[in-house]
Amino acid sequence: MPAPQVYPLPARTPLPCALEGRALLSTPTFNKGSAFSATERATFALEGLLPSTVQTLDQQVQRAHGQYYACGSDIAKNAFLTSMKEQNEVLYYALLARNVKEMLPVVYTPTEGEAIGNYSRMFRRPDGCFLNVLEKEKVESVLAEWGGEGDVDYIVVSDGEEILGIGDQGVGGIGISIAKLVLMTLCGGLHPNRTTPVVLDCGTNNPDLLNDELYLGLRQPRVRGKEYDDFVDTFVQAVRKLFPNATLHFEDFGLGNARRLLEKYRPEMTCLNDDIQGTAVVTMAAITAAAWVIKMQVSDLRVLVYGAGTAGTGIADQFRNAVTESGKPIEEAVSQIWLVDKQGLLLHSHSSTLTPAQKPYARADSDFASVNTKDLLSLVRSIKPHVLIGTSTHPNSFTESIVKEMSKHVPRPIILPLSNPTRLHEARPSDVLTWTDGKALVATGSPFPPVTLGKTGKTYDIAECNNATAFPGIGLGTVLCRADRISDKMLLGAIRCLAEHAPALKDPDAPLLPDVADVRGVSKDVACAVIRCAVEEGLARVAGIPEEEEGEGGLKMWVEMQMWEPEYRPLRKVRPEESSRAARGELGVGRRA
């Protein structure tokens, strides 16, 4: 008889709870509001604290949805959802899960950017871990309040310097850490009580914040150099010591720090930078699907990236890795990539102004002696790219002339205007499709409505290069297999898996990426792909990972059974003196109660 399947992170068992009465109702991890059963009300001293009717979670979601609609603006809806999350965690995620496509732009980009920009003025209740550079000696003790070795699976940290296209937001960066963890739970099924949002307050160079008497962070210019590096290293080493099994996710660090921090710590621990790697994975998945549609090999594509910052160079690196995996030498892979930034096409003569990430892609000046390297149209005419990617935040920079020039050389140009928020997009999908008579393969960085062409009456759904389809699955996979680190092969596995979910594989005019409404199932499959690669490379630290993919006891079921679901679990009463910190509501979001 086969041994029973072991699930290291069970998500279906009853929850031990040492709280009762108002303390229980004030703890979002355990609170069920009007859904507490009569037995639970008696057991946990809730009688008289709730209306008499016992409701279902579905009824609560219906009521909450009506309250959500009553909020006039998106920022008001964002505030309402934040308040709900602080009261009843299961209801919050159940509401989101039933309305993913509608509410994702409210809890994430673009509305979350507005909320972060007004963080100090909208502040009501603290959420997350706040570390500041003037109290480096307290970092470890503060982090220890969030649990012990087996309590934390995933940490998102930001220093708030480059937030969602709106720049330096200082301590408001805690908002992006929280938002990313919401997606980790909503899309990837991580236990919300086993995650920790962190902001590293290093000051701010935003004059509006420095002059705002309500600003809640350090009112001083950003710390740089050795003091900054020592502070970040103190934090990272504390994470490694306290939470050796956790994945560390860097988010929205500045251009001068994002890549070098990732390269410093990536060989040592399980960490990723979503702006570099998550964006690259989802973009490469769109390119891979597009290559299948036009019946070309990814390794034969020419790629022009307009905007060579953190995201642009990350995409270039991931494309290079995909090409070298096909067997081409790295020099040949690099020769298929052109990067354009503030100085125009990156050239050898710019070497003194290029970042380490940009330098490998600089071109010989002599190769472009007769080309205006600061003019995108001239570059497109010279390079004849199959793929044009926008990460520049220069709105409307992909003009009709540029798009039509691409169409002269490529039957179905792949055009990806990715800059966020929507007002900063390099082109509107409706224009690109109109200029190419529907031949362009388009994916964008923000959601856009379907496009109907007047000539044919045909409607095109627009793929969104939303990182939410990538990093939750990658993170889930690393957590479940306790990956020693995140390798290039694991990221390539995620790319292939995500591309295989593209509707365009069944209909060449359909989107290049799966819809965010399907993201939870996609995340499960991406996690499986990541875990398989980790096992093959000897990077998985969990024993007993199933070898088979499908069926009872297979890898997919093993992953699914450990994904947290927004459903009320039975509460099991335990005595406070014999309970864990989790049962006392002292971990994760519950520690605020």
UniProtKB/TrEMBL annotation:
The active site is at Y108, K180. Its cofactor is Mg(2+); Mn(2+). CDD domains: NAD_bind_1_malic_enz. Residues 573-593 are annotated as: Disordered. Residues 573-584 have a biased composition (Basic and acidic residues). Residues 276-535 form the Malic enzyme NAD-binding domain. This is (Perigord truffle) hypothetical protein.
